[in-house]
Amino acid sequence: MLRMIRGGTVIDGTGAPPAQTDVLIRDGAIAAVGPGLAEQAAGAEVIPAEGLTVTPGFIDMHRHADIAPLTNPRFGEIELTQGITATVTGNCGIACVPVRGESAEAYRRFVTPIIGEAPEGALFPDYRAYRRMLGQAALPLHMGFLAGTGAVKVAVKGFSPSPYTPREMAEAQALVREAMEQGALGVSLGFMYQPECYTTPEEQAQVIRPAAEAGGILTTHIRGEGNSLVQSVLEVIRVAEMAGIQLHISHFKATGIKNWGKAIHEAIQAIEDARARGLPVTADFYPYDCGSTTIFSLIPPAVLRDDNEQTMAWLETPAGREQLRREIAREDPDWDNMALSIGFDRIAIAGVSLPEHAAMSGRVVSELAEEAGMHPSDFLAELLCSERGQVGITVMSMDPADVETVARLPWTCLISDGLYGPGDCPHPRLYGAFPHFLRHFVWERLLLPLPEAIRKMTSMPASLLKLEGRGILRPGAAADLCLFDPETLTDRADYAHGRWLSAGMRRVLVGGRDALIDEQMTSARAGCVLTH
């Protein structure tokens, strides 16, 4: 099949200046880029692009869409309307594979606020089964995956805080090795979450060594993004150095009001120092000053028990409620206490599963607790236990100036960190992160030139993930392309209306085929599994 995109303003993804030119596509790949390709395009279908910007398809290397092709009826629509033609799952140590053994049901409940409700067959015992599912699914966009070391640890030893035994370490390494053999792009860890919060840097380096040997990347949800930000960054740098692996820090930010304007600069310097001595450290960010996560992230480590079921059982007792009230009122040098660092009036409920709690979505904890006549920590415990942990939250935790500082760094790329959990009010980044970045950071705030912004959304993530022929508009590359008018492309989702689709994307091509035309998704399913 021969197609020609005629007369568009091409931004090739490398950061180079725009050029008004034609793009010739043959059999799903870019055949030529240049002016006046009409002679080479005899008989080609012509796609007029005068007045439009033509870019490589956007790559979201951090999106919790692990089971979305199986469970989310809007999968594809919410991505393609943003221009996302490829995404990567298995982030923050959290994944839908490998899930097995006695902890499988507890883990399913733990991940629901992040990846969504998993019906039977949507959690996988091994990477071969997951790879097979992705290969058989009718994917509207490309998908790659990471081995989540949190999921690996639960599969091997449950939520236990005890160290790996030699046998368990060998089993965990075997699972990481299997993931790489099945095409995983690398590994992710989540030091903030159970059970990885109990893992030492030395253990973690051992677990991920098979990925390092295979040339994969390590992406990290660091242990703390508030008071312990700098030491948490230094910790993962140490892990990467011990394992000999390329390091990428996920959703790099500073949380907690007293850390604004200071901690992020100290963390940047720590990364710059590591880069200066030859360690390839990079990071990503989402273009908002609010974060989103699971309600369990608000529970102090001293209150947590061996698994989530035991934690909830403890919080159902008067002694457990009293301990939570006490612990949540004090600082912990090794844990981000959001209740203290930003306050309950900046923590909102984003998603719940019980119909009787639906009206809570979008409202802050302080107001809900006051209406219920409860201490905020008691309200949290009550909600967590009644929902069996399946609650998503939004935290208004960041300084906009810090977010802008991170966005301008040459070694950061854009992500959405989109969560697919239940509820009517998800974080707007799920539906609009990429257009929001362009509209707010490029066209309104003038923080970045458009070619550099496009690089952060295309060739940079492709290069980090070693996806040859992706994220760049040049002959031989895959014909994953976006066509849009910069004046009309915009996000529409906000914190009150999290499920509003982005608008203004004129056309998206996946593998040279039309996946979206004038904001409408087509029946084409040209996505493939992106492998290491």
Descriptive overview:
Helix content is 33%, strand content 18%. The protein has 532 residues and is of the alpha/beta class. Among the domains are: 2-57 and 475-489 and 496-521, Urease, subunit C, domain 1 (Roll); 300-393, no CATH class. The strands form four sheets. Strands 1, 2, 3, 4, 5, 18, 19, 20 and 21 form a nine-stranded mixed β-sheet that branches. Helix 5 (149-157) crosses helix 6, helix 6 packs parallel to helix 7 and helix 8 packs parallel to helix 9. It is globular, with a radius of gyration of 23 Å. The relative contact order is 0.16.
Short description:
The chain has helices at 68-71, 77-80, 104-115, 127-136, 149-157, 166-181, 201-213, 229-243, 263-276, 308-315, 318-327, 338-341, 365-372, 376-386, 400-408, 429-444, 450-457, 459-464, and strands at 2-10, 19-26, 29-34, 45-48, 53-56, 58-60, 84-89, 142-145, 147-148, 186-190, 217-221, 246-249, 281-285, 291-294, 347-351, 392-395, 412-414, 481-484, 505-510, 513-517, 520-521. With 532 residues, it is an alpha/beta fold. The model has no long low-confidence stretch (mean pLDDT 95).
By helix and strand content, what is the structural category?
A: alpha/beta
Count of helical regions: 18
- Strand percentage lies at 15-25%
| Unreliable residue runs | none
Report the average pLDDT across residues. Answer: 95
Second CATH tier, the architecture of the domain at 2-57 and 475-489 and 496-521: Roll
State the CATH topology of the domain at 2-57 and 475-489 and 496-521.
Answer: Urease, subunit C, domain 1
